[in-house]
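Weekly structure sync, notes
Attendees: PL (lead), two postdocs, one rotation student
Agenda item 3: pending single-chain targets
PL asked that the sequence for the first pending target be pasted directly into the notes so everyone works from the same version. It is reproduced below exactly as submitted, 233 residues in total.
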Amino acid sequence: MCELLDRLQEIEGIRWIRILYAYPERISDAFIAAMVRNTKVVPYLDLPIQHCDDAVLKAMNRRGGRREIEDAIARLRAAIPGITLRTTLIAGFPGETEEQYAELCDFVKTVKFDRLGCFAYSAEENTVAAKMPNQLDEETKQRRADHIMELQAEVSAAREGEKVGNTYECICDGVDDETGMYLLRTKADCPEIDGNVLTPADTPLETGAFYNVTITDADTYDLYGYAEEKLED
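Predicted structure, written out during the meeting:
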């Protein structure tokens, strides 16, 4: 992976490189160093952790546990100040106890991921998990997932609010059909997954072009601002 990042750095015409689906147990110091030295790699990383409780992770057949996850996060944040970290969680996995769920809630409030999605466990036919005992009822699973997202909404609103008044390099994705405003993204926003930066359509912007955008307002997941200037390719 490190060699791949170094080779991608040499390709002309690439402005942003976004790394997705990086397992925490595979995040070595060498990998972090490769991220740092590659000027095209945006300070963003998707960590598919699914849970934080060691017993639940083992039942999910995932490697490592909470200690390895928190260690990877600490090393990333120390080496890349301001890095945006995203993850996806599953609530209501077969056998998940109230105590294990409470640990997951604490984890969300403590780690404070910039981006986080949580889904209620859904049994897929012919999978090992679907045949496990202690399946939770749908109401419990959905309630737990919804509460996790409520906790994350507080974290996200605070994170986005801190960006008001700052100027960010953004790429324009086009016009939002509902609002008529331009949709842009910062380096912290993965397309079709994370939030957007919305700007008025009174000044024409070019889809696929990069602009400096000053943020004037924020809500839970999106930012609002105005484009100042188009950046050179």
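Discussion points:
- The beta strands are 17-19, 41-50, 84-91, 115-120, 167-175, 182-185, 197-199, 210-218, 223-230.
- The longest helix spans residues 138-161.
Action: rotation student to compare against the earlier draft before next sync.
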